[in-house]
Design a protein that fits this description.
By secondary structure, the protein is of the alpha/beta class. The chain has helices spanning 4-13, 37-45, 60-68, 83-93, 129-135, 153-160, 170-180, 200-209, 223-236, and strands at residues 28-30, 50-54, 75-80, 99-102, 116-122, 136-147, 184-197, 239-251. The chain has one domain (4-251): Rossmann fold (3-Layer(aba) Sandwich).
Length: 254
């Protein structure tokens, strides 16, 4: 059995570029929402003339949906803010002639008005609904799977202690913002997903990759808390946390 120090060192050494969580296979599990994001996006891509994926990460999920789509959009575009992911996305989406623009997550989109009939985003850190509405063509849709308030609160509190405030109805707030931007909300759903970490190395890798869970995370800063997580996993077999997901589809009126 590997020791705490060995597991922590292993989790700290794994590269975090891109949005690929395959290193966690066999070490952590996460329940998925029932709507199936990749299949849903592939279905929408099959009828899109022009598609834009916001905050695409390394383009992994977008590329998989493009591969599964029955027909390819005439124009494929994406945005990303982190340079290492930007390079990955450009290589990955080159197969579809994809253009990937470097754009701050809260910045304006470098595209003309009414350019795309599909704008997608999976787990965006922020949503510029005014910009989304602007670049959507009349009758076009924005499809988003967002991260709900309270996601991994259990994990965060294991390191930070009790956090103030209650969880917010994130999907409802997103719907309100979409309507304020002039869009029609045609679908809104939410789901609570069980997450299990089976060793502390998986916890370390996850916290290094999903940096907003514990924004100042480092192994050195949180070693005592990580040791307690390790002991809990040894006692109970897994550390259980929860993620919140919502799905929203909003359409620009024709």
């Amino acid at each position: 059995m590997r020791t705490f120090e060995e597991l922590v060192a292993e989790g700290a050494a794994v590269p975090t570029e891109g949005w690929d969580f395959s290193w966690l296979v066999g070490r952590a599990t996460e329940e998925r929402p029932p709507w199936g994001w990749r299949g849903l996006l592939a279905d929408r891509l099959g009828s899109a003339l022009g598609s834009l994926d916001l905050q695409t990460g390394g383009g992994e999920v977008y590329a998989e949906a493009l591969t599964r789509a029955e027909r390819q959009p005439g124009r494929v575009a994406a945005t990303e803010s982190w340079p290492p992911n930007l390079a990955l996305a450009r290589r990955r989406l080159a197969e579809w002639g994809g253009e990937v623009a470097e754009v701050a997550d809260d910045g304006p989109l470098p595209f003309p008005d009414a350019t795309f009939d599909l704008v997608s985003s999976r787990h965006p850190t922020v949503q510029r609904w005014d910009e989304i509405a602007r670049v959507l063509a009349p009758g076009g849709s924005h499809l988003c799977q967002g991260i709900g308030s309270g996601t991994h609160r259990v994990l965060a509190e294991a390191l930070l202690g009790p956090l103030p405030g209650a969880d917010e109805p994130t999907g409802a707030l997103a719907a309100e913002a979409a309507r304020t931007a002039g869009l029609q909300v045609v679908d809104l759903r939410a789901w609570r997903c069980r997450v299990e970490f089976h060793d502390v190395g998986a916890v370390v890798h996850f916290l290094r990759k999903v940096v907003w869970t514990v924004p100042d995370f480092s192994v050195e800063r949180y070693r005592p808390q990580l040791a307690e997580v390790h002991r809990r996993i040894e006692r109970e077999g897994a550390f259980v946390s929860w993620s919140q997901r919502y799905l929203i589809e909003a359409r620009r009126p024709s």
